[in-house]
Design a protein that fits this description.
This protein is of the alpha+beta class. It folds into 2 domains: 128 residues, Prim-pol fold, CATH 3.30.2250; 99 residues, no CATH class. The chain is 39% helix and 17% strand. The chain is built from 11 helices and 12 strands. The strands form 3 sheets. Strands 3, 4, 5, 6, 7, 11 and 12 form a 7-stranded mixed sheet that branches. A 3-stranded antiparallel sheet has the order 1-2-8. A hairpin with a 5-residue loop joins strand 4 and strand 5. Helix 7 packs antiparallel against helix 8, helix 8 runs antiparallel to helix 9 and helix 9 runs antiparallel to helix 10. The longest helix has 19 residues. The relative contact order is 0.12.
């Protein structure tokens, strides 16, 4: 399949006020000359025409932070992927189903929030574009909202419409399926995505999530508290290292189905911010540590 001509999509994005930059041909990685992509992303139409006029096969990326966007990425499962225990429910097959379930709980089933600029991705997923609220530093999340839901905001980008990606896990175009204006991030989603420094996680939340298994809730709460204490007591020069080790240890709980991933992330992000680490450093360390721990699930306990 021949990729779509990206230039008109890049111009259209710029006219919406979005900052764009090029990705490699049929790929999701920035071209080598755009390593500092968030700073170099542009909405200058002359620069866009000049670049894609010379490199017509390069894909398009939208830099979410400079564009004032929060993009909700609803994915589909890869071959053999099954939902974690907290989302193993009838009717839950992908990220769109998880978001619908969240809307039932937090928005009384109102689905009007879906009427925003929308792109269908190469594997049948969905990108919902929203205008970020002012004066709140939203950042990327991975699984905080639920299984197969990521978000991209400050520090993140999405593959833009008109692109074509050919990766081992799937190939296909990124196509605009709703050209509507971008709507503000719904209030209920904004609350769920508030940065960790504004969303304290309590042991009560752990017990609520694991109400059906009180013994495990106590075990998980103690383990989580122990890892947080190690982060908070870390000496200068060891803080990021301790955060990474704690994230790995907590990730083993997530991988065993003992702790929802979003609570693990929020708890450790709070701890990292409290000891003065840079927010972007905290995000990256927590995400990578938890993912590594998920691959080594803890044995059954309690």
């Amino acid at each position: 399949m021949t990729p779509t001509n990206v230039l008109p999509h890049a111009i259209a994005a710029a006219r919406r006020g979005w900052h764009v930059f090029p990705l490699r041909t049929r790929a999701k990685r920035p071209v080598r000359t755009f390593t500092d992509w968030e700073r170099h992303a542009t909405r200058d139409e002359d620069a866009i025409r000049a670049y894609w006029g010379v490199h017509p096969a390069h894909n398009l990326a939208v830099a979410c932070g400079p564009s004032g966007l929060v993009v909700v990425d609803l994915d589909t499962p890869k071959d053999g992927e099954t939902p974690p225990p907290e989302w193993a429910r009838p009717g839950i097959t992908d990220g769109a189903d998880v978001l619908a379930t969240l809307a039932e709980k937090h928005a009384d089933g109102d689905v009007s929030f879906l009427d925003t600029f929308t792109v269908t991705t190469r594997r049948g997923g969905i990108h919902l574009y929203y205008a970020a609220p002012e004066n709140v530093a939203y950042r990327n999340t991975s699984g905080r909202l639920g299984w197969l839901i990521d978000t991209r905001a400050t520090g993140g980008y999405v593959v833009g419409p008109g692109s074509y990606v050919a990766d081992p896990d799937g190939r296909g175009p990124y196509t605009v399926t709703n050209p509507a204006d971008v709507t503000p991030l719904p209030g209920w989603l904004a609350t769920l995505l508030e940065p960790a420094r504004r969303r304290p996680v309590t042991s009560g939340q752990v017990h609520q999530e694991l109400a059906h298994r009180p013994g495990m809730a106590r075990y998980v709460t103690r383990a989580l508290r122990g890892e947080v204490d190690k982060v908070l007591s870390a000496r200068k020069g060891q803080r990021n290292h301790n955060l990474n080790r704690a994230a790995f240890a907590v990730g083993t709980l997530v991988g065993a189905g003992m702790l929802p991933k979003h609570l693990a992330e929020d708890t450790l992000e709070q701890a990292g911010l409290r000891i003065g680490l840079d927010p972007s450093e905290v995000d990256a360390t927590v995400r990578s540590g938890i993912q590594a721990g998920i691959r080594r699930p803890r044995g059954a306990a309690a």
